[in-house]
Amino acid sequence: MNTLEVKNLKKTFKLSKKQQKIERTDTKLKVAVNDLSFTAYPGEIFGLLGPNGAGKTTCLRAISTLIKPDSGDIFVGETSVVTDPESVRGKIGFLTSELKLEDHFTPNYLYIYFSRLHGIEDEVIEERKDAFFERFGIAEFREVKVGDLSTGMKQKVSIAISLVHNPDYIIFDEPTNGLDVLTARSVMDYLIELKEAGKTVILSTHILSVVDKLCDRVGIIINGKMKLCDTLENVLKTDPNNNLEEIFFELVKEDELLGGAY
Amino acid sequence: MRNIFTIFRKEFFRVMSDRRLVFTAIILPGLAIYIMYTFIGTAIGGEVEDIVEHKMIIYTENMPTDFQNFVYAQNINPEFHDYDPNNHEEIEEQILIGEVDMIIIFSETFEDDIDNLVISEIFIYFNPGEKYSNYAYGQMTNVISTYGTIIGLDRHGDSYYAFMVDSGIIMDEEKAAGQGFAMLLPMLIIMFLFSGAMSIGPDSIAGENERGTIATLLITPVKRSEIAIGKVLSLTAVSMMSATSSFIGIMFSLPNLMGGAGAELDVFIYGVGDITILFSVLLATVLVIVGLVSVLSAYAKTIKEAGMLIMPFYFVSIGLGISSMFSGEASSELWVYFMPIYSSVNLIIAVLTFDISLTAYLITIGTSLIYVTIFVFILTRLFQSEKIMFQK
Hints:
The structure holds two protein chains of two kinds. Helices cover about 40% and strands about 25% of the residues of chain A. Chain A is α/β, with parallel strands linked by helices. Chain A has a single domain (about 5-100, about 170-255), classed as Rossmann fold, CATH 3.40.50. In chain A, a hairpin with a 2-residue loop joins β4 (about 70-75) and β5 (about 80). Chain B starts with a helix and ends with a helix. Chain B is about 70% helix and about 5% strand. The mean pLDDT of chain B is about 80. A five-stranded mixed sheet of chain B has the order 2-1-3-4-5, sandwiched between helices. The interface of A and B includes residues 64 and 98 of A.
């Protein structure tokens, strides 16, 4: 089955002296994610929630093999990010604002370039490209340099490029950030389409309304730890008003009382 | 005014609070100049010392003992051999390849001529294309001139013109022209190769890291080593094109430049074989330079920092190129051909002076390939390093 399983993931970073001062600590290591575990299933959207600095991006970077776990592992299907990162990269579609496209090139050129890096046949590239460019209204901008595109169009092109290889696992980090309502809506609609196509989707966001609308399952990370992980339905049941925002604030408050940073 | 000060303070702090920038922007320039000038000074000093210490090998005919003693009295201790006209061609050949420095032929009646106030002729053969021969010629003509003045005063109480010196130049015209190129080109070639790599390398690697586009490439299933090799090869191709363009320009403008200075240099002395060998040496060199530039660019956080990290290596390489200006001939020491860049400088000289050795050529090409493999390996490791790729 196309599950994506994060198992006891731990990742630490070295703190500079300046960072130690800010964090008021003598320890040289900062634990970004600590013993994090969750599973995302095919045909579902898993929402990864958490305040800034909670460890969401670290977790997604580890899934995408950009960084290595200190301990624990992540299985994309049967493939481990620790032992076979190259195969994992071939299976996932990863989108984050950190991954930029070169301004100098056109969407058409970049789509073909990244498709080839994924080893896709020229015929299939053309088919997928035409379909995707049409679906997202990129077609008329296909020969415009990325540097000259609007923010929304750049994001659409980034989405197209992250999915050139039609991956079974899709990891999107804040995909609607900085987008106008219309573009955000088209991105969310597309995520639903991907889910309905049986893809395993992980969505990291701090926009709770997006979680409400899209996610089937939710994991809330605070200070590197998974505070709550269940179906959206069960999570909402924990609040009398079924209000996700209230649940989120309660968890943050609870962590503060336990000595967390928030 | 306050804004200017605020901006000044921020920009100044940006540099002073970054240890790497302090080192590369403030300490390094002085250090690089000191090292480069020291190196040039040592190179010039070493070359002069080498020529002065060289024992002159001179074939003489009818040399008066008095003159020979006079030479020894000047603290010049040449190795004198007897000249046999039957072996003239053989000795001439040795002068041509630099094994013998000169021939001095005195007239059979030299002593009598001086006594009878007849102007005698001294004939000297030498090779201005060989540094030792050229130096020996300068030294010996000085000695002869001084000797003439002294015997004039001694024997006739007057400094009259006792004899005249006539010179025969034994020189391989092509090799001499080649030496002209060998003095100028290695430094220029290394500069061009470096400039080509420096103009694109930092942008292609440090720039991609700075702009966040390298991460997009790193999440594809492509191996890091393939990314490293692809980058190095494309940078090599562009650097080669840039260097070739500069090289063609300089080859065709040199004759005009040197012609204007009274010398003659003809690029057409080199055949297809020479140019092919030269091209292969340049390719091997550019691979090493691009490898180095790529590694430094991957290590740097920004294009600016990459430029500063590359600069000292650029200075050192130019210094190595400059070293060729003083010797004009390739080193015969084999260890030289194991040193990156320096081996190329020497091999370029060897090609230009038609003095190439197969062993030196193979060592240079072989070690260059080893160096670039090491650089690609380091570059791959840097691409794998999350600290390097995601440091802010």
